[in-house]
Amino acid sequence: MVGHQLAGNLIQGLILGAVYGMATMGLSLIFGVLKVVNVGHGAFMMVGAFLALSTFKLLGLPPVLAVPVAFIVGMLLGFIFYRVAIKKLIKGPELSSLLATFAFGIILEEVVKLIYGSEHRGYNWALGKFSLGVTVVPYTKLIAFVGSILVAVLLYVWFNRTKAGKALRSVVEDSEGARVCGINVEWEYALSFAIGLGLTVSSGVLLTLFIPVGINPYMGGHYTLKAFVIAVLGGLESPYGAFFGGLIFGLIENGSYLLFSSFPSLEPFAMTRFFSFVMLLIILLIRPEGLLKTK
Amino acid sequence: MKAKKYLPFIPVFVAYLALFLIGETVSGIWQLIAMLAFYCALGQAFNLFMGMTGYVDFGYVAFLGVGTYGMAITISKLYSHGLGFGLIAIGFALAIVMSVLLSLAVGAVALRLRGAYFAIATIGVNEGFRYLIEGAKLWNGSEGIIFSGPLRMAFGRQTATVLTTFAADVFVFIIALAAAFITLVYMRGKVGYALTALREDEDAAKVMGINVTKYKIIAFITSAALAGLLGASAWALKLTYVYPPDVFEITYTVEAIIIVLLGGAGTLLGPIVGGLVYGLSKYLLAIILPGFQLLIFAPVIIFIIVTFPEGLVGFVKLKTRGTWLENYIV
Question: Residue B145 belongs to what H/E stretch?
């Protein structure tokens, strides 16, 4: 019985984990290339969530169709924020870029609050479910799962098989060397910041399929925290590390929920959130270079 | 020579005294003055770590939160023991103990880490602690603690009113002064020199034989203890309740960052100037454009970082270098 429940939870965790993983790739990409931590990460995901909501409620279309729109919106925001601040702060102390991305997040939250208000809003996009014996999976979550893996694969192909991706990797390896070889390093920075935010905003679209209580402008905060745990699990600098970190995190989160709910004196939902914070500290303490990094 | 070191404390003292006297003499503005004093104190305490080390603690509000709990627990558990004002003293002591313990736990992990990793380690502290209280149903869990009743029973109605409406704010002034004084002592002593070296180049400082970690811990713990005291007075004593989502709200960390940046990180007078400018503009904005404060202040943060990183006091400090004023503006 408990075994069944655990298997069911782990399957759900794996599905959610793939979305978590995709949601963290942008964070790791930006840190890997620019050495900038996007402290406003969750706020960018929130923008994607609201794009999904609008697509469904205003246009009556399936919310997943918002993914490409979200990617473009994210890229535009990326280019604007890069031009306004990040460009000048890359070489400065870390404090500046941390505070700048933090401020970007606040701006997004406040603008969305202005448009949509601060109440929770939800939508119900149902396509039916299928049974796996130990658990029931709605088709919408399956779409999010497949979509996340697809995005991860696309990013991998772009990175490793195209010229533009190779140019970007050369900047990560050695930005001075890349400059000597005629690569426009400035442009590569701007591009990776934009792609990173594009990924982050589109992950917010897929994430809404997992939030039954609805979304609000301040939902991003604890996704920032989760994304940090995941990114650190995956070594912080590698988007693929982040993807696998997400899978692991999804499994741990859903597994620990079951564990916490077996203690009647605990409130399991709040405890899983506390646990993800403790996990972050433990990983940073024992292996700050990430669990998945072999170097 | 020794006294000259502490000359910059004169303008700090005069500023807080003036603020206090204005609040006392002009009727009807005590609440505004108390708010300004809170922001100045928050800035002073936050600046002690962020300004001196260049590290941002995104979970700073957690120290105010546990300090609030320290006072709340003391009053709600010990009110019937006839301790008199000892009750308040124990409350402050517990607030310090709790915030220092939390800072040791966080610091043990975070202070080993550099720059970005430090920020990542601290960003979840307030959320993490809030969910521990709610999840493990600690200290009444998500319901929080209301202790206006116990406070009245311990001190009587009249004294309790004076405590919440006046004494709590006076404590905030005292904490602000104490924070400023400690900042100055640190600045003019070994801690300050070590932290300046660290801020400029951490590796070089280490190679020169400076125990960087030790000084970071000193600044971190001091800053946390002051935050605990601030929570115990400005939140616990003043409001007589504690509710987890309120006292771990990240907005207060944002406000501390804005205040320190506006005034000038690492300066002594910066938090006062930043706290006054921020507090007054927040007050006015709440009247003219309610709900828009953060939307206006977030771009201000970006503007300051990009074009004006030294802040207001930092700017004046540069301009007055070499004149008689340089002894006072620090």
Answer: strand B145-146
Which H or E run includes A138?
Answer: strand A136-138
Question: Model ipTM?
Answer: 0.82
- Does residue A105 form part of some domain? yes
Mutate to test the interface with B, among A37, A81, A98 (most CBs of B within 10 A): A98
| CATH number of the domain encompassing residue A238 | 1.10.3470
B265-301 tens-digit pLDDT? 889 999 999 999 999 988 888 888 887 888 888 898 8
Q: In the 8-state DSSP scheme, what is residue B7?
A: T
Q: Which residues of A touch B47 (CB under 8 A)?
A: none
Query: Hey, are the CB atoms on B135 and A285 less than 8 Å from each other?
Result: no
> For the domain bounded by B2-327, which CATH number is listed?
1.10.3470
Query: Do residue A89 and residue B305 have CB atoms under 8 angstroms apart?
Result: yes
Q: What is the spatial distance between Cα B68 and Cα B233, in angstroms, rounded to a whole number?
A: 8
A110/B contact by beta carbon, under 8 A: yes
Assigned token pair, B326: 């340089």
**Quick one: which of B65, B54, B53 has its CA closest to B250?**
B65
Chain B residue nearest residue A37, CA to CA:
B116
3-state secondary structure of A163: helix
Q: In A, which residues are within 8 Å of B131 by CB distance?
A: 270-271, 273-274, 277
Q: Sign of the CA dihedral B205, B210, B214, B215?
A: negative
Unique residue bearing structure tokens 């019937």: B80
Say if A80 is an interface residue toward chain B (CB within 8 Å): no
pLDDT band at B34 (very low <50, low <70, confident <90, very high): very high
